[in-house]
Structure prediction request, 355 residues.
Amino acid sequence: MNLQRVDPSLRNRWMETIHNDILTPLYFANVEEFAYSNENPFVPNEEKLNLLRLKDFAAFNYEKGELRDFMLHIFSDFIGLFHLDIKKLQRFIFAVSENYQNNPFHNYFHATSVTQMVFAIGEKAEKYERFLTPLDRLSLLLSSYGHDLNHPGVTNALMVNSRHPLAITYNDASVLENHHAATLINFLELSGCDIFSDFSLQDKNYLRRIIIPTILGTDMAKHKTVMSDYTNIFTIGYDKNNQDHRQSVMSMVLHSADVGNPCYKFELATVWSLRIIQEFNQQVMQEETRGLPVSEFLRIGNDIRKIKQNQMGFIDGFIYPLWKLLALHMQEAQEYVEAIELNRKLWEELENLDS
Prediction:
């Protein structure tokens, strides 16, 4: 069914029903009571913008309504720059927020955190002026906001092994990332959410060409490719006029932010770590229950020793090299690298307590 109007009270029941079937995004077209309009224009609150510029932004300390308002602030630069319809923008932000599922980790709080991190780095880096055009920056933030849209809380491996309809649709390749990108593009083209309705066809096509590969770059299977592409463009000399170069930077920034939980202060990073581990444990249980190949590397359980080893291994093998490379050419990210180094040290000290 193509649902245009949905009773919000039925949403969770519906999402549970379709969890093991095709993931059908829901669009809430009947919501019209937004705070801002042409008669009541949006004026950014500098205090909120300053909160969004902080490295340690705790998204789960806020209600979803507050997070949607923060998101409006993140996109505030573009309202005047690209003459975006304020009602459509609010409706789009709302629709996306209601189509993140209530997973322990891959939820709306994660989407907001990733978008905020991309925004905060950009604020330090003069809005990515050295690297991106304004339209690129808008595409990057949109990609961040929708990068896990309608995520079911499992990995691509489970989608493929269970022969999920999405795996068949996308030929087992970056199944979830393709779904997130396609869902985001669909929302941007829905009547009422089509914030680019006044854009030229050329600009619309350009946005699509940017958003899709940027989200596909969040697939961990493409981790090494994203890093090598980023290295190569700076080895030959970064050219802002080269779209491939700009694309590489956008992919690198979003991929880094997507796995950027270890960049937060330790107590905040630990909360996110426990959330993803909870999601991993749930997947292992689901695989066992359904008789699917079990992702043993996700079997962490509640053993504090395993949790610590998992976190240190993840930092050493993926996170630290990734962020160190990002900061090599985007020095504004160095603060995040230093936080990773400190968190790695704190995990190691906890590890030593067991000896």
Observations:
- DSSP finds 16 helices and no strands in the chain.
